[in-house]
């Protein structure tokens, strides 16, 4: 049973208008609400349709006013948040707004912030999947709404790393840079990949794919030419490092016969990585299809966010 002071906010993410059928809470959301209520928690169910509405909800998780005037998350864990998400990108969207609200600008960095961090500990969240959320499986989190409720009521959380980027967003799983051409094979591209002070690829290399990994969710290559290659099989969300893997095509010409292509995978871990492509390159980041067309840098924020369960 929850103690009498425990309250839980279920954040039901939707793009539907408020008066539409699609905006109504989904069955897993209602089941989780009922399980929380049955356990004695006070439950607030809110449907959020925009960043502004997410921001307004997060403001209710602010701590007491600080002498430096910074917005800071509360240390009170009696009020807890569940994200009802249909995809990893929806979870990332809420965490991104958390970072935007509570990360101080560099010019106002407070003395009580850890040396290797640019933001405080974000409040832990429960993740209730209403669709396909790979993080739930990767983190071995419960799928059943009643089990999600139990984990949040128990209040035990695990702190995880996230990546920040000079482009603004945060990254939870990681990014896979590279794509498949019309022939069903990996389309080679050229660019520069640097991890800390080490160059993993330069424009002389024929790059097939590059993984900037905080987990294994988006680092497997399954196209016709690279089937079964796992770029970052040991990447975890709590290592305190970025795992970077670059698959490079190596062309060999035997004395007789046709030339052959061998795939070399270069792997390393560190604190920060930059990728500079020559031209537009397809990219999947936390399940979102996009393009990379200029230099992009990621750095790790050790233990910055947390999940119940």
Looking at CATH, the homologous superfamily of the largest domain is: Probable inorganic polyphosphate/atp-NAD kinase, domain 1
Number of DSSP-assigned strands: 20
**So what's the overall shape?**
globular
Number of continuous helical runs: 5
Q: What is the string of SSEs from the N terminus onward? A: EHEHEHEHHEEEEEEEEEEEEEEEE
The number of distinct structural domains comes to: 2
> What is the third-level CATH name, the topology of the largest domain?
Rossmann fold
Radius of gyration, whole Å = 22 Å
What is the percentage of strand-forming residues? 35-45%
Question: In the CATH classification, which architecture of the largest domain applies?
Answer: 3-Layer(aba) Sandwich
- pLDDT below 50 for ≥5 consecutive residues: which ranges? none
> Structural class per helix/strand content?
alpha+beta
Largest sheet entry:
6 strands, antiparallel
With strands numbered from the N-terminus, the spatial order across the biggest sheet is 6-5-20-17-10-11
